Amino acid sequence: MAKPSFLGLLLIAPALIMIGALFLYPLGFSLAAAFTEPGGGLSLTHFQKAYELYSTDILFTLFIVVVSTLLTGLFSIVIAGILTLSETPWLIAALRNLYRWPLFIPFIVAAQCMRTFLAKNGLMNNSFVALGLMEPIQTTSFLDWRGIIITFVWKQVPFVTLMLAGAMASIDRATIEAGRNLGASRLRVLVELVLPQVAQTLLVGLVLSFVTMLSVLSVPMMVAGSQPTMLTVDMAFRINSYGDYATANALGVISYFMAGTVAWIYLRHNVKREVQA
Amino acid sequence: MSGKSPSPPMSAALDLQRGRSTVPPASVANARVWALGSTALKIAGLAIFAFLLFGPLANLVLWSVAERWYTPFKLPVSYGLRYWEVVFRPTGDAMSSLATSVIIACLTVVVALAVSIPAGYALARLKLPWRTALMILFLLPQAFPSVAIYINVARVFYSIGLTGTITGVVLVHAAHGLVYSVWIAAAAFAAVDRDLELAARNIGASPLRAFFTVTLPLAAPGIMASAIFVFLESLDEFTGTFFVGVPQVTTLPLLLYNASMGGNYQIASITALILLVPSVLFMIVIERFLKADVLSKVGQ
């Protein structure tokens, strides 16, 4: 390899300095705050405290994010599958024009929408009552863990579907035709022929969604009540109410760990694929 | 395929099919019921999907024009634009938050482009050590749970007097948007034909002149797309502003949050609708700026 261009390094330096100052340095700060005790030595006392106070919320966060990711995957596969395999042109056209709408809607706007839509007297329950599906007395508020999951899935499905439908459109149609000609049902073609070819894209979309959902503060704050809640809300609470950076950062490291586990699964899958290839 | 006059063997096949299917009338009726049932099922499915998709948005619109709406009523008791007038009153909180948001978003675009145009050019054209690692480095701020980062950014900013300032918020937004601006700028430069630059150099243009008169204009649509991405990302950003901007800097998302938590759903819904406008416009025009040749090079 020729020697690296000095000009190149000079040109990229400002961007690198920015990442260093505004991401890597605070990241180091958070690790240091989480692992050092008041005296200065290394310790896990903050994690112990975080666990004692927030073990329910840690499990709650994990539950919400895992269920939302799985549901996002399921709905995206169904929508992308219909877009690719359906033989009804008007259905494909309608679905293609519909599914993208929440794509660029900010999380905070989605949260505000759901805060009114899913409430006890929200438009959803009111519509069910008006259609005669439900008595007014039976309505319940969905503004708890279900609301968070619904909001996350509503917001993330278009994103994963967009990636997935793109990947499905670029696979070889001949394999699909062959499967259909041999008498396989469309469901079987989707599961056995199409999905294995787009698994990589699906995995990338779901990993990105997982980390995004782990980072969102506005949705759990606005959609659900106070207890139990997600780690992002607990971190904000620790800082704003007690100025307790140590415990907040310990919770932060736990959320890095969750994101890291998913990234690791993704990388391991990638390595396996490259070994096979 | 809908050929008006199918070729002879094809029409024969069609006749055969028709002939065959008219023989047992019961199965025709059956097939018709099947087709009707399947169409009805598809329409029902699509209707439920559309309800779940647009229901939340419809609720938002209803709240924005509801002057009074309380429990036993399924729809607002009285409609009106009173709250719109409150929001758009020149002296209102909303107008000043809108101005703050737009100023911050514009400055964020300037900062992000100022560092990512050179970086993108270097990544696309020049020899850099550990190029892949550098590309991934710009992705990291998006790949980490951001709340834990922002609380520490806020702590660092506090010690140097940047919390509660526009500068602080702009820096946080720019760092967050850097992955879009750097990756898309790199892809845009990579998509520019190298021969055109060489041609300009051959007829005597200096490297700088070739860059500003040939490369940059050709990469402009892609860079424009990255600028829109960064602008929107900044306009919609909540978490970073929540930690770094308080209490002095109130952007639209913060106003939305405060209004919603305070139970003022009309103001919250109108603010949300204002935030929706650029997002929807962007969804419509994105394909004009992000051409397939650039898109295929993103992240490479």
How would you characterize this protein structure?
The complex is a heterodimer of chains A (277) and B (300). With 277 residues, chain A is an all-alpha fold. Helix content of chain A is 78%, strand content 0%. Chain A has eleven helices and no strands. In chain A, α2 packs antiparallel against α3 (89-99) and α8 (186-215) runs antiparallel to α11. Chain A is globular and about 70 Å long. The mean pLDDT of chain A is 87. Chain B is mainly α and 300 residues long. Chain B has helices at residues 8-22, 25-64, 82-88, 93-125, 131-143, 146-159, 166-190, 194-202, 207-236, 239-244, 252-261, 265-289, 292-295; strands at 66-68, 78-79. In chain B, α5 packs across α7 and α7 crosses α9. The model of chain B is unreliable at 1-23 (pLDDT under 50). Classes of the chains: A mainly alpha (277), B mainly alpha (300). The interface between A and B is large, with 80 and 79 residues.
Short characterization:
The complex is a heterodimer of chains A (277) and B (300). By secondary structure, chain A is mainly α. Chain A has a domain of 187 residues: MetI-like fold (Orthogonal Bundle).
Question: Which series of helices and strands of chain A comes N to C?
Answer: HHHHHHHHHHH
Specify the helix fraction band of chain B.
Answer: over 70%
Structural class of chain B: mainly alpha
Number of domains of chain B: 2
Strand content of chain A: under 5%
Give the name of the CATH architecture of the largest domain in chain B: Orthogonal Bundle
CATH-defined topology of the domain at 41-104 and 154-276 in chain A: MetI-like fold
Tell me which CATH architecture of the domain at 41-104 and 154-276 in chain A applies here: Orthogonal Bundle
Total beta strands of chain A:
0
CATH level 4 superfamily of the largest domain in chain B: MetI-like
The radius of gyration of chain B is 28 Å
What structural class do the secondary elements of chain A suggest?
Answer: mainly alpha
**Subunit organisation of the chains:** heterodimer
In spatial order, strands of the major sheet of chain B run 1-2
Report the average pLDDT across residues of chain A.
87
